[in-house]
Amino acid sequence: MLFSELHQLKKGSKDDWFDPILDIDTKLFIDPFLLFKNSNKHFEKSHEKIILFFNESFILAAKSQGISNTLSYKKLRGMMTFPEVGEICLGYTNKSTSGLGSGPGFSKTIGEAILKSIEAGITDLDHFEEISILEEGIGADRISDICGNIIKEEIIDYTNEVCKRHDIPLEEFKVKHSSFDFQNLRWENTKIFLPKNPFNNKPILLVPSNILRDLPSINAKGFLDWAWTNENETLRTDFNYEIKKQLKKEDIVKVALEQTDLLEKYVKFVENKGSSPYNLVDDPKGLYQWYQQSKIYTENHPVKLPIASNSEELAVFVKELIEEFNNFIVNNSGYKLLWNEKPLLPKTEEASQLLFHGLIRAQCQVNGVDVSREVNSGRGPVDFKFSSGFQEKVLIEVKRASSNKLMQGITKQLPQYLTTENINIGYYVVIVQKEEEFKKISTLKGIAEQLSKDQNKYIDVFTIDATSDKPSASNLK
Predict the structure, then answer these.
(1) Is residue 26 situated within a structural domain?
(2) Which of 177, 183, 273, 461 would disulfide-bridge 444, Cβ 3.0–4.6 Å?
(3) CB atoms < 10 A from the CB of 345, how many?
(4) From the CB of residue 386, how many other CB atoms can be counted at a distance below 10 Å?
């Protein structure tokens, strides 16, 4: 459910906020670079605030000299604790709206990154996300958490303004890291009135759409691409790197720390080039529009099925859902949602999984069947698990035919998940987006049949034709 649906409101000209999906995180992040010269009155000084925060942390790090029992180092570790800002419903956790978090372990990681920076001669930062290039364990989710914590006070004010404009009811919550006390260099936790998320009973925070991206504008991959294009000779002679793809994150960190002038040039390059927020309308990675598109389709094409009372009926029910997904993709132009038009390229595997999830969960709700996404079976994430009020369950693994783990998915992943969860029925849904992929998947049915016999389970394969130029009505088998 969208925030706007919950409160039955329509956006006006003043509403530049991201409309979050309240029960599933959207894999977008607050990009601190987009706060740089941001014109929104609530955030116009937020970039300066972030830089001030990190300047204070550099001072503490320099005073401590990395000695853990000093007051300065303890103060630094306290500053560097950044819990996930789950209230904004953004991040990597697609099962719900609860992210990975940035606790004590990460506090040490980022503290050490600052110490490394000082040793390399960097005494301050114009953009704190440069830290992600100087340390292996800092990714987009961490950068977003850091940024969200430091400017949470501004986000709260922004949210309250939106709620006041639309007369949205508020409840009192104790908000962790609601503000930062720069005088005493410590986080404050305050009781604040905010809208409530009915799916987790936690507060909701709204952020402007124009500060969100799928990756930070300044990032390790961008630095590598820039350096390979502009400083190729340096990488070859000074570091002995001959092939770009051989570089790992640790190699990028090494280059950045030993050639800080390159990092400075790269940051200036990004500043001059500028950056744009993620395009929520075109949705090039299929991260957001799946919800609205699948909702519209399921409202117009409801599947009426009897509630399953045993494993066989549940298996048939799930099969019908997969066939309905196939009907949507093949016969109702759903395949277009899995392609980017300019240039014509397939979207990510996750786009297929999200669209599948969006389409089936409404049908499941109507038919009294619970569906969970990315269930942690102890061996890794399973895409979907179904149950209908009793112990029987069905697992589904969704893969693109282009995946380099296609065979691993059918021969190892799905069987292992079934064994770990003590489930006997599993479906392997394969999304085909190019004609030559049909040959690649031709043996999957036979493999599934043999696995079913060997492991005394029922494993079946479904092929979904999501090619951009349909030669036939359906390729579901």
Answers:
(1) yes
(2) 461
(3) 11
(4) 24
Determine the straight-line distance between the first and last CA of the chain, rounded to whole angstroms. Answer: 33
Give the model's confidence band at 192: pLDDT under 50 very low, under 70 low, under 90 confident, else very high.
Answer: very high
Asked if residue 119 belongs to a domain, the reply is: yes
Quick: pLDDT tens for 169-179: 999 999 999 99
Residue 361 belongs to domain spanning: 289-465
19 & 76 share domain: yes
323 and 226, same structural domain?
no
Which residue type, as a one-letter code, is found at position 447?
A: I
Question: Which residues does 180 contact at the CB level (< 8 Å), separation at least 6?
Answer: 53, 149, 150, 153, 186, 187, 188
Residue 416 falls within a domain, yes or no?
Answer: yes
| Shared domain check, 217 and 161 | yes
User: In terms of domains, do 153 and 246 share one?
Assistant: yes
Is the pLDDT at 203 greater than 90? The verdict is: yes
Peptide bond into 208 cis (omega under 30): no
pLDDT above 70 (res 313): yes
Phi/psi region, residue 65 (left: phi>0; alpha: psi -120 to 50; beta: rest), is left
Is 126 a residue whose pLDDT tops 90? no
Single residue among 273, 302, 319 that ends a domain in this structure: 273
Judgement on whether residues 343 and 401 belong to the same structural domain of the protein: yes
Rg (CA), the chain: 25
User: What average pLDDT does the structure give for the chain?
Assistant: 89
The whole-angstrom separation of Cα 186 and Cα 184 is 6
The answer on 330 and 191 residing in a single domain is no
* Separation between Cα atoms, residue 216 and residue 37, nearest integer Å: 16
Tally of structural domains, the chain: 2
Say which range, 48-57, 194-203, 211-220, 363-372, has the weakest mean pLDDT: 363-372
Got the DSSP string for 150-195? HTHHHHHHHHHHHHHHHT---EEEEEEEEEEETTTTEEEEEEEEE-
188: phi then psi, degrees, rounded to nearest 5 = -115, 140
Q: Residue 157: pLDDT above 90?
A: yes
Choose the weakest-confidence range: 33-42, 276-285, 306-315.
Answer: 306-315
| Contact (Cβ atoms closer than 8 angstroms) between residue 117 and residue 134 | yes
Both 231 and 348 in a single domain?
no
Confidence label for 101 from pLDDT (cuts 50, 70 and 90): very low
Q: Is the pLDDT of residue 94 over 50?
A: no
Q: Does one domain contain both 183 and 52?
A: yes
Instruction: Classify residue 118: in a domain, yes or no.
Output: yes
Q: From CA 143, how far away is CA 147, in angstroms rounded?
A: 6
